Amino acid sequence: MITETGVELAGGRLLHVYDTGGDGPVVYWHHGTPNIGEPPVPLFEAADRLGIRWIAHSRPGYGASTPAPGRSIASVAGDVAAVADALGVERFTVMGHSGGGPHALACAALLPDRVGAVVSISALAPYEPSTASGFDWYAGMADGSASSLGSAREGRAAKERQLAGATGEEDIGFLPADWEALQTDWDWFDRIVPAALVMGPAGLIDDELAQAGDWGFDPAVINRPALLLHGSGDRMIPSAHGEWLAGRLPAAELRIVPGAGHITIMRHAAEALEWLAAHS
């Protein structure tokens, strides 16, 4: 059973919080873009077997959580600490998918005394000009994904224009198997995406601005055990992003799943949950 509550932060912001309860090891879930914070129901069977307690929150601007324009990826660490304090949780591991991956990494970087380990699934790497590093941030991305993130690189006004002009027919990089998963074992996503946008696109816009901008921390400072999971067939966030991150994190294990896409990679998330349980 999921208990939903509100946690009020300094300044009056409210976060919509989810908690499955129990006294087992805590996994703090970081949702994708655009999702709400509800923990991943398709993983509940594995979590129950491992005795895991999920906690999570909807990031600012999603669902009932107050928007926080200008937030960075690093901003999540303070929000997570406040939620964990309110729930009486001192130590936890973190897990994030897609847009939640960088936020999970931020917690490992900025809350090292509280976070035991981190799993990041299908996450972007921080933006770097390819001329400076040789890593082409956009290489292998589907046109729709590259356009969405590229507009965020240009700032809020450009992102708002891009979103207003979207037709829904753009190629965002899902494989046929990803679309099939959204109708079968991972149809949970089709419920939480509309719920994320019920108050408008503020959360989505702020998420992409944060992902495409300065993250506010360097992933290289993460000294906690880290598992990076990515599908080789992912065209929304190509697996080169996972490879870049793995090359920067001192204690990272990289698992590239042959042929998996942005959604079908979640069929391997139960294995990642087992890895987290072993490192909690």
Explain this structure to me?
This protein has 280 residues and is an alpha/beta fold. 36% of the residues lie in helices and 17% in strands. It contains eleven helices and eight strands. The protein has an eight-stranded mixed sheet with strand order 1-2-4-3-5-6-7-8, with helices on both faces. The longest helix is centred in the middle third of the chain and has 12 residues, at 143-154. It starts with a strand and ends with a helix. The model has no long low-confidence stretch (mean pLDDT 96).
Summarize the structure.
With 280 residues, this protein is of the alpha/beta class. Helix content is 36%, strand content 17%. It has helices spanning 44-50, 76-86, 100-110, 130-133, 143-154, 156-164, 176-183, 188-196, 202-212, 240-248, 269-278, and strands at residues 3-8, 14-19, 26-30, 53-57, 92-97, 115-121, 226-231, 252-257.
What key phrases describe this protein's structure?
280 residues; alpha/beta; Rossmann fold; 8-stranded mixed β-sheet; 36% helix; globular; Alpha/beta hydrolase; AB_hydrolase_1; hydrolase activity; AB_hydrolase_fold
Helices, strands, pairings?
Blueprint: E1 3-8, E2 14-19, E3 26-30, H1 44-50, E4 53-57, H2 76-86, E5 92-97, H3 100-110, E6 115-121, H4 130-133, H5 143-154, H6 156-164, H7 176-183, H8 188-196, H9 202-212, E7 226-231, H10 240-248, E8 252-257, H11 269-278
Helix pairs in contact: 5-6, 5-9
